Amino acid sequence: MARNDSRAPDGDTTTGHEWDGIREYNNPLPRWWVWTFWITILWSIAYWVYMPAWPGISGYTKGLRNHSERANVAVEIGKLEAARGEAIKRLAAVTSLDDVEKDPALLQYTLAAGSSLFGDNCATCHGSGGQGFPGYPNLNDDSWLWGGSFADIKTTIRYGVRSGHEKAHFSIMQAYGRDGLLPAETVSDLTSYVLSLSGGAADAAAVARAAPVFQQQCASCHGPEGKGNQKQGAPDLTDAIWLYGGDRKSVHETLTNGRAGVMPAWEGRLSEDEITALAVYVHDLGGGQ
């Protein structure tokens, strides 16, 4: 029920309405609140005039100050690029690691840039410290599938591995079990033989049976002694460093279904100086040859 009544029993003014016995007083707002309210309105009007504020179809009002954070950022980036310009030019022209290492200032800049690039582009697969994960090489050790020299690392970064680039590294690990190239029992014996090359536990009879099979099927890539071949991207099977795991199950999986990991080609994604900085950084992680 609503009833109009502009006076309350105690003499205070009300809005003249009553809802279920509840009356609404018509008391004025505090003076400080009213002044604050009007000040905020005046402030907003002044801000609209002075600062960029109103969006338009193709832009926005610039305001009396003509301020733009985007323009300020562009100016600062231009200053930074100008400051780094000389280092970038020199880095793009680097042909050997000595060209960088003999200049402490250039080396410091290169490692800092390489660290940032590695974090942005490589750490997802290789880990923040280059420690690697199953299927993604550890970049801190001395085991390199395609060579660990500065030039080799730079080539791998530039063209990738099985990336589709015409100059990419390419190799094939046969799927001996899946494709029926070898009987299941022979694959099992070959697993024992591969494990034995790095000192792993293996049945002596199985190793003896698989020895001639290894020479026929595997030695052309991994070498007669299983030492590997960097020109073909064939890993050393004697060093107990395993890309996909060195337990019996993992090795058997590799022989059965093969492996064909992909590393993307960074040419076209990274500039010449960035590829160089990244190669120097990876080489410096500890495993470069």
CATH class category of the largest domain: Mainly Alpha
Strand order of the largest sheet: 1-2
Q: What's the rounded overall pLDDT mean?
A: 90
| Biggest sheet statistics | 2 strands, antiparallel
Counting structural domains, the number is: 3
Oligomeric organization of the protein chains:
single chain
- Uncertain regions: pLDDT < 50 for 5+ in a row? none
Structural class: mainly alpha
What features would you describe in this structure?
By secondary structure, this protein is mostly helical. The protein has three domains: 1-67, no CATH class; 72-162 and 264-284, Orthogonal Bundle (Cytochrome Bc1 Complex, Chain D, domain 2), CATH 1.10.760.10; 184-257, Cytochrome Bc1 Complex, Chain D, domain 2 (Orthogonal Bundle). Helices cover 47% and strands 3% of the residues. The chain has helices at residues 31-50, 69-92, 97-101, 104-121, 123-126, 150-159, 184-197, 204-217, 219-222, 248-257, 272-284, and strands at residues 14-19, 22-25. Helix 4 packs across helix 11 (272-284), helix 6 crosses helix 11 and helix 7 (184-197) crosses helix 8 (204-217). The N and C termini lie far apart (91 Å).
Sequence-ordered SSE layout with sheet pairings:
Elements: E1 14-19, E2 22-25, H1 31-50, H2 69-92, H3 97-101, H4 104-121, H5 123-126, H6 150-159, H7 184-197, H8 204-217, H9 219-222, H10 248-257, H11 272-284
Helix pairs in contact: 2-11, 4-11, 6-11, 7-8, 7-10
Concise structural overview:
The chain is mainly alpha-helical and 289 residues long. It has eleven helices and two strands. It folds into three domains: 1-67, no CATH class; 72-162 and 264-284, Cytochrome Bc1 Complex, Chain D, domain 2 (Orthogonal Bundle); 184-257, Cytochrome c-like domain (Cytochrome Bc1 Complex, Chain D, domain 2), CATH 1.10.760.
